[in-house]
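Q: Is it fine to ask for two folds in a single conversation?
A: Yes, each is treated on its own. Send the first.
Q: Here.
A: Result:
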Amino acid sequence: MENATLNVQGMSCNHCVKAVEGGVGELNGVTSVKVNLNEGTVAVEYNPEKVNLAAIKEAIDDQGYEVE
């Protein structure tokens, strides 16, 4: 398993948390997603043999948030 913490712009409420955690959490190979609104970060634990960081970033982007 690998861990990554991404800086994400535009998250401001619990709806944002649910959208990001739901979108990323649906990806095959993602085992954990945790949004920190105060810091503007998304911590992800994933299996790099099943999913890559680009796909995770795209899932966040698809929810309408910008990954730095």
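Q: Second one now.
A: Result:
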Amino acid sequence: MSVAFRRESDEEHKEPKFELPIPAGPNYVTPRGQTLIVEKVAALEAALASAEEAAREEIARDLRYWRTRQATALPAPTPAEDEAGIGSRVRFRLDGREREIGIVGDDEADPAEGLIAFSAPLARAMMGAMAGEHVDFGGRREAIEVLAVA
């Protein structure tokens, strides 16, 4: 017998919606990152209150993620002065090109804006480095020259 004659609804054939994955490790946030999380939760709560039935499930899933991130947020430890850490801006040279990044929490990261998560390989390589130091990266010794840390 054809499945069209047996199924009771289209719901049973939809792809399952899984929860949004939570990054592993501690949820360190900068003050800006904490504010962004609070704003995101408020926006999703407002959207859920006024959403059509079809959109409610997805908004509720996003809201569960952001509420979890809000509940597990830890203020990032303040790095020593002139030492790269979460909340620092780092100017560096890699492959002859000078660049600048900000090291932030996972949810605040936006590579297009130069904000790199502390868990990203580039940020991990520079954590704890000071201006004038060379650090290993990408399997190469002293691949990165740290020029300035603010």
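Q: Anything structural to flag on that second result?
A: Two points. The two ends are 70 Å apart (CA to CA). The mean pLDDT is 90.
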